[in-house]
Design brief:
Layout lengths: L4 H7 L13 E3 L2 H16 L3 H4 L15 H5 L2 E7 L9 E6 L4 E6 L5 H7 L4 E2 L9 E2 H24 L4 E7 L1 H14 L7 E5 L7 H8 L4 E6 L20 E4 L12 E4 L20 H4 E2 L1 E2 L13
Length: about 300
Amino acid sequence: MRFSLLTVLSAGAAIGHALPRNLKAREVSTDELSQFKFWAQYAAASYCNENYASKPGHKITCSAGNCPQVEQADTSIVYDFSNTTSTDTAGYLALDNTNNAIVLAFRGSYSVRNWISDVEFFYTDPKLCDGCSAELGFWSSWTNVRDSISGVLNDTVAQHSDYDLVIVGHSLGAGVATLAAADLRGKGYPSAKLYAYASPRVANPALAKYITAQPNNYRFTHINDPVPKLPLIAMGYVHVSPEYYITSPNNATVSASDIKVLEGDINWNGNTGTGVPGLGDFPAHHWYFEETDGCKGPGLPFRV
């Protein structure tokens, strides 16, 4: 079954608080906070045209000034991708010699084709585990570029076997990054780290449980950001656990005490409990330690 955006928004009122509340929570350390802020800058860099439409060897830069630590590091683009698939999956594979990391970054929504992927809400079988279903648009966004990325990734890892593989994204990019991480962990990269900022729900309970059981998942939400509330629980979608819930207001510096770590695929003490998704709540979607999508160009092109 396919759901329209109007159906999605109106159905939210029916969810209520019948589902159990999970009261388990903890705060993060200052060391964790510094890591969260740093990898958010790689997600921010994925919106910059100069990074996802570059040439190998290009040093990562952010025209919006929202990735200063990444710009200071010894970085270079190994592979970039955009405007080659029906879903317009965009991003880059980068080498960070300062932090000994190979970074796979996925851009969030920008083009018309991205938004079509955002609102499909069909299920598909990703063949990752028994009974697992993924949201079709997000899974297709990954599989459309998987083969081309995997070849370059394998070569890069072979040359830098002591580097961490880090997968990042914001919004649509976070949803794609989540499924890419789950897939790659089962294909030779079991320790891949995931930093997913403002991710929509991408999985049914079986798939969410499967990904949650994998190591190194860091999924962030921010106050009443509407995007992590979609697709709705009423449609059978849930989140990967844990949730790193940012409680500071928009455009504010985030401290360690502003982040609560919440367990469970549904937890009403975080973003899910702030009400049904509303268009007026979108300012919260842009601010994840930085103005994460600050490099996004104007308009909503079909091709970018």
